[in-house]
Design goal:
The chain has about 120 residues and is mainly beta. The protein has one helix and seven strands. Strands 1, 2, 3, 4, 5, 6 and 7 form a seven-stranded antiparallel sheet that branches. A hairpin with an 8-residue loop joins strand 3 and strand 4. The two termini are about 15 Å apart. The mean pLDDT is about 90.
Amino acid sequence: PVAGQTGTSLNLGAETIDVTDKLSEGWKDSIAGLLSWSMEQESFFTLGEESLPLLRKQFLSRKPIEVEIRVGEADNAKGVTFKGKGYLTDFPHDFQQDSAVTFSLTIEGSGKLEIIEGAVTP
């Protein structure tokens, strides 16, 4: 878990491949292409906790991060879990004079995002 988290967005995307030809009568024609995902998160800078130094280490090492977002408690049969690996690609820190210190991050997915419907077991 990331300490001080205030919000997370999970972005799912789909590309299309242009297959327009002379028989398309002037209309663009497409087929489904590659899927992608990314995650954005905002957090308060919390001194003394371990998640922020670990994130900085992963960013500097350029190694993948395992991501898991859970909606609902683990034993909730109607919950959903999103799991995948990605790379921390944007990691701004905001040091405002009249506000709390915050940071945000963007993780670009690498490979499939697993979507698990229902309860999960530890």
